[in-house]
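Model the whole thing, not chain by chain.
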Amino acid sequence: MDLQVIGKLAKEASYELAVTDSNKKNEALETIALALEANQAEIIEANKLDIQAGIESGLTDALLDRLLLDESRLGAIIGDLRSVVSLADPVGQEFDGKLLENGLKLCKRRVPVGVIGVIYEARPNVTIDIAALCLKTGNASILRGGKETIHSNLVLVKIIQDALEASGLPKTAVQYIENTDRALVGQLLKMDQYVDMIIPRGNSGLQQFCKENSTIPVIIGGIGICHLYAEKTADFDKAIAIIENAKVQRPSVCNALDTLLVDESIAPEFLEKLAEHLQPLGVTLVAEPKAKAILGDKAQAAEPGDFSREWLSLNLGVKVVQDLHEALGHIREHSSEHSDGILTNDFSIANKFINAVNSAAVYVNASTRFTDGSQFGLGAEVAVSTQKLHARGPMGLQELTTYKWVGIGDNLIRS
Amino acid sequence: MDLQVIGKLAKEASYELAVTDSNKKNEALETIALALEANQAEIIEANKLDIQAGIESGLTDALLDRLLLDESRLGAIIGDLRSVVSLADPVGQEFDGKLLENGLKLCKRRVPVGVIGVIYEARPNVTIDIAALCLKTGNASILRGGKETIHSNLVLVKIIQDALEASGLPKTAVQYIENTDRALVGQLLKMDQYVDMIIPRGNSGLQQFCKENSTIPVIIGGIGICHLYAEKTADFDKAIAIIENAKVQRPSVCNALDTLLVDESIAPEFLEKLAEHLQPLGVTLVAEPKAKAILGDKAQAAEPGDFSREWLSLNLGVKVVQDLHEALGHIREHSSEHSDGILTNDFSIANKFINAVNSAAVYVNASTRFTDGSQFGLGAEVAVSTQKLHARGPMGLQELTTYKWVGIGDNLIRS
C-alpha cells in the first residue's frame, strides 16, 4: 500500500482513538491478547519461516535467538500486553488548572500525540509491545520492523487489526509497512503532515539517519555510554558491588556501565581490589595509561575511541582522574547523557555532581541499571530518551501523550 | 567568528550557567538593564544606520516601523527585561518525587535545555527579549537576527556581553552570528553536538526551512489559522462580540481569528447581523458559496486556498456548516492547531468540541486572542508552539527547561 495512504488512514484513525474511552481501549487490548492466544500455532509457523530464512542468510545465533518466537515467549508477550491493560490511562488527565484574573478557566489536558512512527529491528515482540502502548494512549501507530521478521510481523499485525475491527475500532489504528525497501524509511520520515513523532529503536546508524532525514520530531535514545565516578570518600566494598551490578548484571543493555572514573588518591588500592573482584566474573578492564600503570597485566591498554564506545560487553573502561572537576570534564565529553553516577560519602561533592552532570538520569550511590521504565515505576517503557526535549530517560505511557490548553469562558473577550 | 567555535563556546558557557544560582542570574539581568540605559544614545545611533539602510533598500513603512528603536521603545524593552528579573526561576524545581519500592529516592529536577539557537527577523527587541529569557533559565543562546537590524543588534549584543562579563558570567552565554550570509542558518541547524533547541521566529518559509534542514529539535509555531464555530445555540450578541474581539483587536498577530464557521440553521440571521456589525469596523468577509448566497454583496467570494491562509488582516473567512461534524472536519483540514474555539450554549456539544479538536488551545465561549503567555499567566513568552512535542501553545520560562531524573541510593544495586 502507498505510504501516503497509510499516513492518511493513520491520521484519520487517530481522531477516533483520541475520543475513545479507556474501557473501550482496554477491551480492544484484551481482544488482541485473546486473539494472539487463539492464533498461537499460526504465529509460530510464520516465525519458523523467518528463522529458516535467517539461517539461510547466515544470521548469527544471537540474532536468530532475538528473532525466535516460541510458546513460552509468546506467553510472556501476551502477559506484558495484559499488564498494559492494568495501567492507568494518562489521556484526559487535567493539570495546571487555574482561574485566571481575566476570567478564563484554563487547564492543560493530556491528549494523545496523534500518529507515531516506529522503526525497529529484529525483535518481533516490539510489534505487539508498541502497538499496545500506542493504542492504550490513543495513538495510531505506523510500524516498520526489520526484514528478518517480516513473516512473523505480518501475521501479528493481521491478528491485531482483526481484533481492532472486532472491538469496533479502526483497523488502521495499527498499520505495518510491508515493503521492506529501505527507501520507504526515508519517505516515512518526511510525512510530517500525518506523523507526529518518530521513535527509532535501533543502533546509532539508524538514529543518525532519522536525525538527519526526518522532518518529524524524532526521539533519540537507547544508546548509553554510562559512567560511574568512584570519588575518594567512597566505601570500597559498596562501590565495587555497585560497579559489578552496573557492569555485569546485563552487559548488553543501554544502562550498563561503560566507564569507571577513579580518584587518583584511592586509585592504586581501589583498582587492585576491583580487578580482583571483577576478573573472575569475566570482566576485561580497558585502561588509559595512568590506570594501566596501576593495573599492569590485569588490564588491557585503551585505544583511541574506547571511551566513546558503548561496550555492550563485559569490557569496562577505567580512567584515573585528579578530582571531581576532571571527572565532570570526562563525562561531558564522552557521556551519551543516558545514565551517570557518583560513588561517594561526601554530601557536598555528591550535590556538586548532581548539579553539574546533565544526563537523563544522575545517580548517587546507586547502579546505572536502575534507568528503566519498570524500575522507575512507570509500568512500561517505550524507549529511553537521551535527548533534551519532550521527555528524558525512560518513556512510559505519559510520554506518549502531549497536552492541549482548554480555556472556558462565559463569553469572554480580551481587553 | 567560525560557527563551530561559537557553538563550542556556547556549550561551555551552558555548563557554567546551569550551576549559576537565581540571584546571580538576576543580578546579571539588572546589570544588562542598567547598561542599556547608560548606552541609550549609542543604541539609537546604531538603529539610525539600520533605518537609513532600510529606506535606501526600499523597505515598506510597516517594516521600517518594526525596525525602529527610539527612547520610548527602548524604555519599554528595558521594562520588560526588569519584569523577567521578577519572575520565578523554574530551574531547580523538583517534581514527581517518590521513594521507590527498590529503595531509590527518585525525582525529576528542572534543568536548562542547554544551548538555544534563535533565528528571527526584523525586530531588534527580540535580541534583548530572547537573551534575557534564556539567561534567566540558565541557557546559553546563539542569536541570528535579520540583516536589516544588524547595526542595532551588534550594539545590543556587545552591551549584553560586557554586562555579563561585569557580572562574572561568561560573555559567550549570549552570542550573535554577525555574518548575514544565509548559508550560516543552514550550518547552525546541523550543529546538534552543541545546540539543543532551535526556535525559528519568522514566517512559514523559515519554519519549513528549519523543519527540513535541522538535525536539532525545532520549535514550530507562531502561525495561527484560527477558527471559531458559532453553533446553533450560541447567543448572537455575545458570539458577535467574541468574533469582533478575535478578528479586530489585533488582526496582525497569530491568535487573531481567520475563519468563522456557522451552523446552517442560524446562518441567515446570524450572518446578516454579523456583517452589519463588522462592516463598519473595516472587516471584509470572504465567503464560500453557501455563505456568499446569504451575504450577497456584503461578502466577497472565497478563492481556492483562502481557508488555508493566515490572513493577518481584517479579512475573515466565513463558511456555513451543517453541524458539529462538518465543523470538526473543516478545522482538522485547515487549522494550524494554534487556537480554535466554539460559541455555544449546549454543554454537551461544547464537550464534544473540546474533546475532538486537537489544537494547542481550545476555547469555549472565549476569544482566540487569549492564547498568549501573559494572558495565560506565564509572565513571558518565548514562542507559541503549534507542534505536539515538548510544549504546546504559549511557551514561558518553564518551556525553556527540561528535566533530569535524580536518583539517590544508599549503595543500591538492582536485583
